[in-house]
Amino acid sequence: MPILEIRHPLIRHKIGLMRRADISTKNFRELSQEIASLLTYEATKDLMLENEVIEGWAGPVSVERIAGKKITIVPILRAGIGMLEGVLNLIPSAKVSVLGLERNEETLQARSYLEKLAPDIHARLALIIDPMLATGNSLVAAIDLLKQAGCKEIRVMVLVAAPEGIQHLQAHHPDVMIYTASIDECLNEKGYIIPGLGDAGDKIFGTI
Ligand code: URA
């Protein structure tokens, strides 16, 4: 499946603001949530609708509602929490399934330390959120885990993606659609995205 870089002017503007070296924690947090909302709008564009007749102010009226699968949002700890509110703003009744993954800074491999999934996750569309798609190791591990739990449809939303990570993810999970605010240039030798945003978790939590 392809990757979609959402080149909406609001997203271009906001991601530009996030790249400033002197950005405050408050602004970084707010922009993460705002871009997450805009990505959610795009990532849910093709959800199926069904008709329903309800009692309106002037009598029965036919309206539409989202049909089929319900949604679970899957933030990857800790940085994924920085996008959660933005997604919930648009999908307030979604269940949240939390995955704790940490990467070994030497091997860059991901290890799971927490899995708190919605019990009916197999029947839900999973929307994974993580600000940075760098090596792709965490996302591959997260998708492996969700598929083992029975998830059949998974989408990923990230703020910034590196070409190396996109390739890695697509090689392992070609069925998973990726939505991003920006495809950046490359990874540096420490696994950081260039130009990127720096350490998104530290910036969201103010632990720099
Ligand atoms: N994680 C981050 O927070 N930033 C990067 O550039 C890569 C991984």
Automatic annotation (TrEMBL):
Annotated keywords: Allosteric enzyme, Glycosyltransferase, GTP-binding, Magnesium, Nucleotide-binding, Transferase
Activity control: Allosterically activated by GTP.
Listed Pfam families: UPRTase
GO biological process: UMP salvage; uracil salvage
Binding site for 5-phospho-alpha-D-ribose 1-diphosphate: R78, R103, D130, P131, M132, L133, A134, T135, G136, N137, S138, D199
Record-listed E.C. numbers: 2.4.2.9
Gene Ontology MF terms in the entry: GTP binding; magnesium ion binding; uracil phosphoribosyltransferase activity
Catalytic reaction list: UMP + diphosphate = 5-phospho-alpha-D-ribose 1-diphosphate + uracil
Biological pathway: Pyrimidine metabolism; UMP biosynthesis via salvage pathway; UMP from uracil: step 1/1
UniProt enzyme class: transferase
Stored InterPro entries: PRTase-like, PRTase_dom, Upp_B, UPRT, UPRTase/APRTase
Domain of life: Bacteria
SUPFAM superfamilies per UniProt: PRTase-like
Listed cofactors: Mg(2+)
Co-factor remark: Binds 1 Mg(2+) ion per subunit. The magnesium is bound as Mg-PRPP.
Record's function text: Catalyzes the conversion of uracil and 5-phospho-alpha-D-ribose 1-diphosphate (PRPP) to UMP and diphosphate.
NCBIfam families named among the record's database cross-references: PRK00129.1, upp
Name the UniProt record assigns to this protein: Uracil phosphoribosyltransferase
Organism encoding this protein: Alkanindiges hydrocarboniclasticus
